[in-house]
Amino acid sequence: MGQVDKERCAALVSLAYPMGVTFHRAFDRVTDAVQALEDIIEIGCERILTSGLVPAALDGAETIAALIKQADERIIIMPGSGVRADNIIELAQKTGAVEFHTSARMNIDSKMNYTNETMKENLRSVSLDEREVKMIIANLKSL
Questions:
Q1: Could you give the CA distance from residue 15 to residue 60 in angstroms, rounded to a whole number?
Q2: What is the mean pLDDT of residues 117-127?
């Protein structure tokens, strides 16, 4: 528990070939990030998506920076979770990361005229916020 299942993950990397594989935020649940990073490099993933073992990447910036240093260009460390236009420059500066993951999402209210209150539904949908994406790109280009 709390470790990378190297055998199964290596099989998935092999099955995905020739596509590259990103190890997702399961990384943020490991007990030893230093060892997990080495395990993921060994199995052949090309990047790790992480928030630095905390809920939001900016809060995990110190850990992300340490992972990038340890990785020494053997794998890409990609910060994700809570990455937005208003914090991406600070995150880039604190971590040295060159790739980022963002949902850049916004919630859209339903256009339904009637809501049945007994259904207790949240009639909102998630969509890409194009303005947010453009601001993120502009901010990164300014670095």
A1: 32
A2: 87
